[in-house]
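HUMAN: Forgive my ignorance: could you write out one protein's sequence and backbone structure tokens?

ASSISTANT:
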Amino acid sequence: MLNSTYKNNFITGFCQANSPPHVFLSKTRTGGASLFYTRPTSSFSLPYSQDFLPITCKSRYNNVMDKSLPKLTRKDPLRLYMERRGQMVTDATIFASEAIKLEPDAVRQLCDAASLPPAKKVLATADIHVGFGIPIGAVLGFDNAIMPAAVGYDINCGMRLLSTPFSKGDIDTDNIAASIARDIPLGEGKTNLPLDKTSLEAVINQGVGSVPALEQRTNHRVWEAFDTDEFAEDIKRIEENGQMPGDPAAVPNAAIQKSANQLGTLGGGNHFIEIQYVQEIFDQDLAEIFGLFENQIVVMIHSGSRRFGYEVADEYMNIAAQRPEMAERRKMLSYLSTDTNAGKNYIAAMAAAANFAFTNRHIMALLVRRCFNRMFGPTPLKLVYDVAHNMAKLETHQENRLWVHRKGATRAFGPKRMAGTEFAQTGQPIITPGSMGTASFLLVGTGYADESLCSVNHGAGRVMSRTAALGKRRRGRIVTPALISDEQFKRSMGSIKLITSDKRRIKEEAPDAYKDIDEVVRIVIECGWAKAVARMVPLAVLKG
């Protein structure tokens, strides 16, 4: 049976003979077994010294409990293996150490993903946590199929890192943060750079490549920072050069109507702009190539496709669920054959949303440059890299052509796969944020990540839900106490300047609501997938 300890709303379990009152095994009507916890946000971890933990494999599309329980087996200190059983069509691997707590529901969602007929490869990185149908942190390799829910609602949510010539203490980062907040709207439902139909179609078709034309067609303060030579250098340092083959005809009308004025806005949730300093350099040679040095001020931007991506995702999840062959599946687990018109249209619409996201981050980066220029005169803020997550791409892995879905995961190509780019010698840069108040990392792909389909985690990953962190109130009365107190949140932020559009809900993004980023990154490095370049910590944080 499962022996557990109960602490801070988590259950850390391992296989032993006794079972305390916090957790017990119960037989189901179908003869299977299910784990029941005293609180719904429970988590568990598996020490290397133990064998396995049974996970209930519940079908999300026919509501029948599978009698065959998959075993989550620890193969080594970094890898947990879920054996193929029951409805599963492939096995699955979770790359997590003993220190990483896992949500049972997230593991069950990964089991659901491994039960989908097109699945050829299923895995999850250490930041795995519950998502819509498919867990965040999942990487799925599909044969001839594309799955909107395995990409997610915020298509091409991604990271951008800008270097500055300044060192910590040279400039007032609080003032810079306040200036950026005046130029870049924070939070949901905000607008900034307005686009007419022709301009929006240019963004859909060309991504960041449309920016010079936008500069000619629109009148906005952002263009004060536009420089043709700088733009030519920037575009070399964006994944896919900031452009994928999008098609306006495949984009839902709602995406066009609701996002035409949203370029240059941050959004809410876990999106952020941080002014950081380089706390530690791990590889001096690589750091010099990327223009980084110790104590240097850098700016990190995390945002995505805004309402555009949401509407694309929602429309095509509904289309997939309505296909006759998906009759037994719910919206969250439906997929499309890439040979069908619907599948081809989703791929084109997803690419259009990716182009919108690339352009959105580029416009925000220009606004950041504008703030620096206005405060300090002409200031070179060089783009280190812009990397996407929440994407699906057709790639070759070990001679197999697969649609690789990275939901809350990011590409991590080594030098060979980056041939013909600026990073053919270094490998692809990987920008891995923690949470506000904790560190972020710059890594590079090594080329030795076949087991993860050349993928790594996109961040730290949550350890508690937003509701658990914030608590729940009804008519001014506390229904569920917050697991993170105001004092605990304040202490975790220390001296970091925080600017937010929603002070009431900001605790949802508290550092204590996330996993230990240092441990998550250590797993990536120990697996051999990436090499660490630099560690950055925030001085000022802007949140939606």
Observations:
- Residues 169 and 460 are 28 Å apart (CA to CA).
- Residues 341-376 form the longest helix (36 residues).
- Residues 1-54, 56-65 have pLDDT under 50 and may be disordered.
- The two ends are 44 Å apart (CA to CA).
